[in-house]
């Protein structure tokens, strides 16, 4: 679906571009994902729009069939954002304990207090952190845009499935350039 509109109060949400995750990814093109997320962040900041940077420091307590990473044994800088994002003091920092950025945080309240009605989402991993955040944003009534060239996953088939089959049901998809062009037309 082509991008149709950017609401006057749109926030950018960058999911899990932190040292402990980015450093373990083998799926390309993480450098491109970081660069495109930074480009979007700079543009949102220049337009006075909120930038949310999300890190994960835990996992929900539920039982799963697949082994989960024990985050109690990770390096001290695991949740440190990658410096290439150029985090700014006005950015909203959200630390989550689940896949999605809304479930275990006050993100919904903070965005709604700012009058935000739409979110643009980037980051890793496409089929977990990004998809869960998009699902939760949609369920909380936000319009959702997914920057498909500013996300990646270690599982290419999961990445492709999310983009092809899930994201069109949660919002609109587009490239970083598409979003930037829409931002310029809206400003």
What is the CATH architecture assignment? 3-Layer(aba) Sandwich
Mean pLDDT: 93
The string of secondary-structure elements, in order, is EHHEEHEHEHEH
Rg, nearest Å? 15 Å
Beta-strand content estimate:
15-25%
| Structure class | alpha/beta
Instruction: Briefly note the CATH topology name.
Output: Rossmann fold
Count of the separate structural domains:
1
- Count of distinct strands: 6
Helix content: 25-40%
Explain what you see.
InterPro entries: Isochorismatase-like_dom, Isochorismatase-like_hydrls, Isochorismatase-like_sf. It holds the Pfam family Isochorismatase. This protein starts with 9 loop residues before the first strand and ends with a helix. It has a single domain (10-60, 79-186), classed as Rossmann fold, CATH 3.40.50. The mean pLDDT is 93. α4 (126-139) runs parallel beside α5. 36% of the residues lie in helices and 20% in strands. The protein contains six helices and six strands. A six-stranded parallel β-sheet has the order 3-2-1-4-5-6. With 187 residues, it is an alpha/beta fold. The chain has helices at residues 19-22, 30-46, 107-113, 126-139, 156-170, 176-186; strands at 10-15, 51-56, 92-96, 118-124, 143-152, 172-174.
Which tags fit this structure?
Isochorismatase-like_hydrls; 20% strand; 6 helices; Isochorismatase family protein; 187 residues; Isochorismatase-like_dom; six-stranded parallel β-sheet; alpha/beta; Rossmann fold; 36% helix; Isochorismatase-like_sf; single chain; hydrolase
């Amino acid at each position: 679906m082509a991008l149709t509109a950017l609401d006057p109060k749109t926030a950018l949400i960058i999911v899990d571009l932190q040292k402990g995750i980015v450093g373990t990814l083998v799926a390309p093109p993480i450098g491109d994902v970081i660069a495109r997320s930074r480009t979007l962040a700079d543009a949102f900041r220049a337009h006075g729009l909120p930038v949310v940077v999300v890190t994960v420091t835990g996992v929900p307590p539920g039982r799963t069939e697949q082994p989960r990473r024990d985050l109690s044994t990770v390096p001290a800088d695991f949740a440190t954002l990658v410096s290439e994002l150029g985090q700014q003091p006005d950015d909203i920092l959200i630390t989550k304990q689940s896949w999605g950025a809304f479930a275990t945080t006050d993100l919904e309240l903070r965005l709604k207090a700012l009058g935000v009605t739409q979110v643009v989402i980037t980051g890793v991993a496409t089929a977990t952190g990004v998809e869960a955040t998009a699902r939760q944003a949609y369920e909380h009534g936000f319009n959702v845009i997914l920057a498909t060239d500013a996300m990646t996953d270690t599982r290419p088939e999961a990445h492709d499935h999310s983009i092809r089959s899930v994201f069109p049901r949660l919002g609109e998809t587009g490239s970083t350039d598409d979003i930037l062009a829409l931002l310029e037309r809206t400003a």
